[in-house]
Design a protein that fits this description.
Blueprint lengths: L11 H5 L26 E6 L4 E2 L15 E8 L8 E3 L3 E5 L4 E5 L5 E5 L5 E3 L5 E5 L9 E8 L4 E4 L6
Parallel strand pairs: 2-11
Antiparallel strand pairs: 1-3, 3-10, 4-11, 5-8, 5-10, 6-7, 6-9
Length: about 160
Amino acid sequence: MTVHLEPRDVPLEAVLERIARFDELQYNPERYPDNGRDGNAKKIFTVLGPGLEVNNAGDSLPAIPIEEGFNITYVQVKPGNGPSLHVHDGNETFIPVNGRWKIIFGSKEEHSIELGPLDCIAVPAYLPRRFVNITVGTPDEENILIAVLAGSRPKAMFVDPTLN
């Protein structure tokens, strides 16, 4: 098979609109209904894409609000925290930047795997999942996990019906 791609120029302004600087990212602390629960405190920065469609969710404040067929978020949390059990209509891939993370999955949270920096797991669509920062020795330090979500407008739903 021969691949042929036609190069094209893109205006500089169009490229500059696709840059997200970490120190300029914003998050909505009231975006997710589980954020006020013990163990669920988190900062979720929507870096690329419009963000998840979630019932009762506020604005995702995307840094690069373009639709490319996937979304990228940075999750910043202190140890012992992460979201409630939830499902997505597409694959969700996790890559820790720093710290240690436990990815928990199954409708009864019966399975888990631990990840360290730059490890990667691709969780299949519709499999209930959550994650928690399990870094030891740094109780006040927030660690970062990258989540890549399949789809231009991915959907999510919490397993706990009181959160939907």
